[in-house]
Design goal:
With about 280 residues, this protein is mostly helical. The chain has nine helices and no strands.
Length: about 280
């Protein structure tokens, strides 16, 4: 018997632009690694992640001024997931042994090297966007910068959607923990992009990101991947999650809430240690 999807309540609200049952059926028709009985959970999670972008503006608490504590809480949750669950789990696997990296020392540290690569990649992207904004006459970045930034996050979303169907650890609970952490992380990303690009993002950008996560999930449901490549993808994602969270928490202009961040971090870390 299939477990009840944890995001079922989200699928019943305001879905005119998104046919949730149709998407869930399509994504749940085949799995490339989610495991028997988890396809519907993964498909429901993909729809929930898409809804974050489509309807994030309707969550009034997220748009509160000054910056909502929910965003800092969500940032703490996603960082806790990376450091307490994802990186230790990757370090325990032998997936990297299947890659032709050669030296034993390189094999031992590969997961951290790839995570660092993800961190540096997104840091470079953010610096590029910031410097481009400084070069513009007005405060709004150019259309070209906007498209590059949006395309990078579309790839990021597609990766998350894909990994919903390919887990580093089998079972429904690990899948739900990943989905919850990514849902809160997407709230942070959506808020940042909406405030950077305003009308351009609200008119089209959010639809691109919603489609990207669903497209990635569909690809994950229909394809398979070896363990070594899977670990590389998860490690790269880990670095991206840390950078995209911290860049929203550290600058003084963000008005982030340390107590909320620490609370989310501590609660989710405790939950991860218990399960």
């Amino acid at each position: 018997m299939l477990p009840e999807a944890p995001f079922a309540p989200l699928l019943t609200s305001e879905l005119a632009p998104v046919d949730a049952p149709l998407i869930a059926t399509a994504l749940g028709s085949r799995t490339g690694g989610a495991g028997s009985g988890n396809e519907l959970v993964a498909a429901s999670a993909a729809v929930a992640l898409a809804l974050v972008h489509l309807y994030g503006t309707r969550i009034r608490l997220v748009d509160a001024a000054p910056r909502s504590r929910i965003l800092s809480f969500g940032g703490g949750v996603s960082v806790a997931y990376v450091f307490v669950h994802l990186l230790p789990e990757l370090a325990r696997t032998e997936g990297f042994d299947e890659t032709p990296l050669g030296h034993p020392l390189v094999l031992e540290r590969s997961v951290h090297v790839v995570a660092l690569l993800g961190f540096v990649t997104f840091y470079g992207l953010e610096r590029f966007v910031a410097e481009s904004r400084d070069d513009e006459v007005g405060e709004e970045p150019s259309r070209g910068v906007y498209r590059i930034h949006l395309a990078s996050f579309a790839g990021y979303n597609a990766l998350v959607g894909y990994l919903l169907f390919h887990r580093e650890e089998a079972g429904t609970i690990p899948l739900v923990l990943f989905a919850v952490a990514m849902t809160l992380h997407f709230l942070v990303n959506d808020y940042a992009l909406r405030h950077h690009y305003r009308d351009a993002y609200r008119d089209r950008g959010r639809w691109v990101l919603a489609a990207a996560v669903l497209g990635g999930a569909l690809a994950g449901a229909l394809t398979t991947i070896d363990r070594g490549a899977l670990d590389v993808l998860f490690a790269f994602l880990a670095g991206g999650v840390v950078l995209n969270t911290i860049k929203e928490e550290l600058p003084e202009s963000r008005e982030s809430k340390f107590v909320a961040f620490a609370l989310g971090n501590a609660l989710y870390a405790g939950l991860l240690l218990l399960v």
